[in-house]
Structure formats: structure tokens, C-alpha cells
Amino acid sequence: MLRLSFFSLLVLATRLLLSQGAPLPVNEEGYDLIRRLQLRYGYTGFTAPAADLNLRPASRGDLVRLAKTYYELYGSDLSAVDRYRLQGFFDDNNEWLALPSLADAEDADRAPFWIGDDFALESVRSPLYRTSQRAPLLGSLYRTPSFFLEHNQKDFYLRLNPVIDARYGQLKDDEQAYLYNRRGLRLRAGIDDRIFLHFEILETQFGAPNYIRDYFNRVVSLPGAGLTKDDLTIGFADIERGYDFLNGAGYLSADVTRHVGVRLGYGQHFIGQGERSLFLSDFSNNYPFLEINWRIWKFHYRNLFAELTGSPQDLPGPDTLLPKKFLVAHHLSIDIGKRLSVGLFEAVVLNRESGFELAYLNPVILYRTVEGSVGSPDNVVIGLTAAYRLPFRTEVYGQFILDEFKYDELFVKKRGWWANKWAYQIGARHVDAFGIDQLDLVAERNVARPYMYSHDGPSSYTHFAMPLAHPLGANFTENLVGFDYRPLPRLNLYGRAYLIEQGEGSPGVVEGENPFQSSDLRNETFGNEIGQGIHYTNTILQLRAGYELRPNLWLEGEYFTRSKDSEQAARDLETSLLNLGIRWNIARRPEAF
Questions:
Q1: Which residues touch 312 (CB under 8 Å, ≥6 apart)?
Q2: Contact 73, 103 (CB under 8 A)
Q3: 462-484 pLDDT, tens per residue?
């Protein structure tokens, strides 16, 4: 009954409230461009940011406003590559080109959400903000460079694109080949400049490398997927055991006022500036959610209410309803001065046989007080995130998250108590390294104590038995370095290297690396240290080169190697992959873990 009441409230909210515009999906390449412009050219000089890149997905309209501001302020300093990337970003989001930049808007610092009269694309002024490129194909297709089908009128727009992400390659010393075949459709639309929707449906066949097959064997879930068939055989592609799954995402967004927006959807979120997130990441499957955003002055406050799946997919019997649990979270970000931004995060995962706990619907209360008032049965985490832009085209950023702790055990006795559960991230980004245009570098360190995110009941910080935050779960240290380099406008070179140390449990022994395992099953109460259990090191190298043949159509080649060296030789695992593929109208999913 309570669960029915919860979702009735979600539906009612979308009828009573009018979202913060159409969102840009979590992994899209536009985020990298905007982040690069922020580091390269700094503060725009206006009070309110157009978009908070700590909170994804963000509004397409907000990102366009910020991109236009950088173009108008620094257009003469832009390199050919930056101009090419900006052109592509404007083409991909051309329904928002009538928006004023922050420099043009009379009320720029107090109107983060666009509420205008229409989607008047012809009102743009700069040649860079083009709305057409060539005569339509077959009279109606590709009226503009980025969209297979496009329609515009005063109170309605629509964008439709096919999606293809197909790769084939060879795995060294493996019994099968590598295949990744994802295809589908993406559609987005806006009505009356008030209501916006995004919809996508994707079908995937995956002949996975050995480490992902090993992960599925242990967890019975696949990153980025829900229910998965694991008996796919493709003779002509030399796939002996592959996976087949259908997945989709969709958002319905509406604007309440210039400062408040709501979004009802099925998808993912990412919180933080890093390559990884210790708060909330896009590693696990999509989930249904209600999101409310409050934006005014230097503050951005986001509430998130989500329904999660409380088990892997291997429950016995056909057509079995998987158990549910709920996530409630909020994040408040604040800009302090021109260079520093700080964010506060709190989340609770709760499980009730009767449904949702209505006390958690309050969007402004501290959830720890609610959790205590109902008997402290739930899993509460709190965190702090910060980013500081140095004057040398560099940003340092970090996260700290706390699950449980006892002061005297953490600072006085220091006996390695199991419930001293925390994790941190520290990282840095630098653009145009060594004076080389478009050579952007990143370095990051992530550390998590044993049993972080776990719970003594079913309320672990997981979804489909996979971590909601960092892919490794807990009980690990990870160091990564990487580069992104665009020597030519259409050529993108990408590289990442990871050095991971983690401890694993053995059958019947829980060492705290898997948040889905109950902390009641822990091996020791005291003497717990990072890396405990069966210790292993894992070295990962990922190199990729992509060339854009036409807008959003990429030809890509990749080399990937992964070497897991465990104290137990039977757990050693070597992976070497070389593949070639084509990608159209969709971003790559992160695959290294």
C-alpha cells in the first residue's frame, strides 16, 4: 500500500509541476567539452553557473547557454579543434540555440531554467550556431547535420536518431572472440517550452572478455544491464558464450518555475567531477526515479527518489518478481567565489515489506534524523565533494563519504573495527598540457575501507547486486592516469591506465569487498584493513583512437589489456583485446574495472 502511495505521489507531482529541460544523458561527450572550456578559460564572470557538472544528467539548455557564453567571450582565442567541437555540440542541441548566453541575458544570474516563448531556431545570430547545412536527404531526412529526422514549430520540436555501436575483435588466449553489438533508437521532444521527454531503446548482444564473464558468474548481473540471457551463441562470430539483453531509458521533465524543476524517469545518475564516483555512478542498471532540482543564485539542490532491485537476477522460477528496495538522496552544491565549489551529499537505502517509508519524502530534512526516528534500520551514507580551479588550467577535486564510524575506534583505539567505513577520492585535471593544444590529462586516486556500502540486512548500497558507486565496491585502492588528445578536429586519441589493489573473500568467508554481502557475515570484528583477504593487484591499460567520419559517426580502434595477479594462482586472469568498430549517435560506456 505504501509503495502504491509513493508512486501515486510521483505521478501526481508530474501533473502538478511543470523539468529543468531535456537532459543530456550521463556519458555524452558534451560534458567533456564543457569541462575543458571551464578549465581552459576559467570563470565566465557571471554569478550563476549555467550547469553543475557535478550532477549528471544536466539540462541541455543550461549547457548550451554556458557553451554560447564561452564562445562569445573567447571566440577569437578558440583553436580550430575547439571550434569544431563547439559546432558539433551546437548542432547536437540545436533546439536550444535561441537561448541567450549568460552575457546576453538581462536576468542571467536568476534564470537557470529557460522559460521562453518558443523554440525559434531562426533567431540565432552567429554563423557558428547554424541550423542547417545542406539540402535534406530524400526531401525530409537530415535537415540539419546531427538528426536523421527533425521537426520544429513554435510550440513543439522532435529529434529522432538511429543508434549503432558495433565492435568486433580478438581476445588473446581466450576460447572465444569479442563482439559488442548495440543498436536502437533515440528520440527527444519538447512541448510548449514547458514539458520535455527523452526516450531510448537499445538491444545488445555481447561476446564478453573473460573478466566480464567471470564477473557475471560471481554476481549474476552484467554492468549496465538488467535481466540478461547468458546463453547467446553466434557461430559465424566465434562466440561460444555471450549475453543478450534489452534495455531502455526515458525521462519526462517539466519546469515549475525559473528555479525549480522536476523529472520523472528511468535511467542513471552520476555525482562528482571524477572518472569514478564514490556517491552515485552509472555502473549498475537503470532504475525508476523522481528527481527535483532547486536552482537559485550559487546553490543547486537535487533530491532523488529511486526504486532499486534488491537481488541479482537468479531467483528461481519463471516470471518471478524481484524484491525491491528504495534509495532517497539529496545533494547540495555551492559555488564559493570564482574557483571553489563544494557539495554535500546524503543518501539512504531502505527496505520495507510494506513499501516506501513516507517520512523520507520530505525533501529538506536530514535523512539521518528520519532513520533514527524509525529505529535506525536503514543504510545511511553522507559525503562531501569539492573542486578547486587553479589558475594554471588545472582543477583539483575530491570526494569523501562516510558510512559508519565510532570516534574512539577510529582515532583512539585504532583496532581496525569493521564498522569504521569510509572512502575517499582525490584527483586533478589539466588541459593543454606542456603547451600542447588539446592534450588534456587526468590523475585520480580512490580508496575504500572494507565493508563500505554494505549493511547488516537487505539495504546494501547496490542495485541488481552491483555497486551503486565505484565498480570495485569496497576494500580497495585504485590509482589511474589518463589522457585525451585531439591533434585534428576529427581525430580523438584516448588512454587510461589503472593500478588496482583489492582484497577478496573466499567461499564462506566475507572480507568486505562486495557491498551486496551482509556485513553480519564478516570474518573479523577487529583487525580489518584495506586489502584484507585474498590480495590481488590488477593493472589495466586502455588505448583508443577514433575518427569522426561525419557528425556523430565514429570509426574506432581499441587495444585493452588487463592483468590480475592474485595470491591464489587460480584467480589470476589475463585479458588482451584488440577490436575495431563503428559508433553512431551514442557515447561509449565505461568498461574498465
A1: 219, 220, 221, 464, 465, 516
A2: yes
A3: 999 999 999 999 999 999 999 99
Cα–Cα dist 524/448, whole Å: 17
Q: What SS3 class is residue 484?
A: strand
DSSP characters over 187-251: EEEEETTTEEEEEEEEEEEEE--HHHHHHHHHHS--TT-SS-EEEEEETTTTEEEEEEEEEEEEE
* 8 A C-beta contact, residue 97 and residue 61: no
3-state SS string for 527-583:
CCCCCCCEEEEEEEEEEEEEEEEECCEEEEEEEEEEEEEECCHHHCEEEEEEEEEEE
DSSP, residue by residue, 416-458: --TT-EEEEEEEEEESSGGG-TTEEEEEEEEEE-TTTT--SSS
Among candidate residues 294, 388, 271, 296, the one with its CA nearest the CA of residue 341: 388
**Domain 2-584: which CATH class?**
mainly beta
| Residues above pLDDT 70, as percent of the chain | 85
Give 62's contacts (C-beta < 8 A, 6+ positions apart).
20, 21, 50, 51, 112, 113, 114
Closest CA to 85 of 496, 486, 493, 586: 486
- CA atoms of 25 and 270, how far apart (whole Å): 10
Q: How far is CA 474 from CA 481, 509, 513, 523, in A?
A: 20, 15, 4, 15
The closest alpha carbon to 426, from 448, 408, 446, belongs to: 446
In sequence order, the 6+-apart residues with CB closer than 8 A to the CB of 529 are 416, 450
Cis amide prior to 49 (ω within 30 degrees): no
Tens of pLDDT along 125-153? 444 655 555 566 666 789 888 999 998 88
Domain ranges of the chain: 2-584
pTM: predicted TM-score of the whole model, two decimal places: 0.91
C-alpha cell at 393: 588550467
**In this structure, what C-alpha cell is assigned to residue 30?**
558534451
Model pLDDT for residues 63-105, shown as the tens digit of each residue: 988 898 898 888 888 999 999 999 999 999 988 887 777 766 5
Q: Cell 528555479 sits at which residue?
A: 259
Strands (DSSP E) contained in 256-372 are 260-267, 270-271, 287-296, 299-309, 324-336, 340-350
DSSP character at residue 96: G
